[in-house]
Design a protein that fits this description.
about 300 residues
């Protein structure tokens, strides 16, 4: 059950769990607590089966009890657990965003895409489980490396990325430590990684394909519980459809895409422990668990909503 209300003169729609969900207990945090747990092979298999058979009983079982949060452009949305910890916040579309920022973004994205001369191949894009749009993974990869290493995309396009970007305390601490320890500079302000999902020739807009990977699942739901169709879901209307024709629901989403700045959890793990890997920390007799209580007290999931 979720409680829904309004705050800040009605500008923020707040969804709060009334029972059954508490971030520290139920958000699938790994045992050391630095990151989320991977979905098991059987769970991923069930979701893949559901994606392949959209009208199956498996789909209804997986989605039973799910709470849909509608997108309302003029309202911000906050989602909180039963202890009022906010774990998701989506800002409203302000006049400044629509009139100033969005036009700049729309101009910068195709320019950035054109500047990349060694991007992912056509086969990479066609076989991307998230969709067949243009995508990128810039910055450094920390996972499974003794020392953070630039991604292949970053190495192949470093000059174009440097031209496009001019370079919270735990973020700054991680940036400072990584620079001192490895000589690596965070290329995107407080973030080590950047991902752009963009339209490309033959694929005029980004529509996230229903998929499941290690820690993320993307589904299409409908109000009446029926299989998604062109009439009852926009813009995604089929679990298997790859058409990009100019029918009305799709045409309304012209230019749809996303830009994501992020840091891998292992970057924080390294900087806060002061040692390269968990294995090395354990061999040194260190406590390798993330101090969840400390970060909760510091407001990593704030209980006071932002006000603008």
């Amino acid at each position: 059950m979720w409680w829904q209300g309004r705050k800040h003169a009605g500008s923020v729609e707040v969804h709060t769990a009334q029972d059954g969900f508490d971030v520290p207990q139920h958000s699938r945090i790994s045992k050391p607590a630095w990151m989320g747990l991977r979905a098991s092979a059987d769970i991923r298999g069930s979701i893949q089966d559901a994606i392949a058979e959209c009208a199956s009983n498996t789909v209804h079982t997986i989605l039973e009890g799910i709470t849909r949060i509608p997108y309302v452009p003029h309202l911000a949305v906050a989602v909180c657990d039963l202890s009022n910890h906010m774990f998701l916040y989506r800002s409203q579309l302000t006049p400044n965003i629509l009139g100033c920022i969005l036009p700049d973004v729309n101009a910068a994205v195709p320019k950035f895409v054109r500047s990349i001369t060694h991007g992912f191949s056509e086969d990479d894009m066609q076989n991307n489980s998230h969709g067949d749009h243009w995508f990128s993974i810039a910055g450094h990869d920390r996972n499974n490396h003794q020392c953070p290493e630039a991604t292949k995309f970053q190495k192949n396009n470093h000059l174009a990325i440097a031209r496009a970007f001019a370079p919270a305390q735990c973020y700054q601490d991680s940036v400072d430590y990584t620079k001192a320890k490895f000589g690596i500079h965070a290329m995107f302000g407080l973030f080590f990684n950047f991902c752009l999902n963009s339209a490309r020739e033959g694929v005029p807009r980004v529509f996230c394909r229903p998929h499941v990977d290690w820690k993320n699942t993307a589904f299409v739901t409908t109000q009446n519980g029926e299989k998604p169709t062109r009439e009852n879901s926009t813009p995604l209307y089929s679990c298997t459809c790859s058409s990009h024709d100019q029918n009305s629901p799709w045409a309304k989403a012209e230019g749809r895409g996303s830009k994501v700045w992020f840091n891998q959890a292992s970057m924080f793990q390294t900087s806060e422990l002061g040692i390269n890997t968990l294995r090395e920390a354990k061999e040194a007799g260190m406590d390798t668990n993330c101090d969840q209580e400390f970060w909760l007290e510091q407001g990593v999931f704030p209980t006071t909503l932002p006000s603008f």
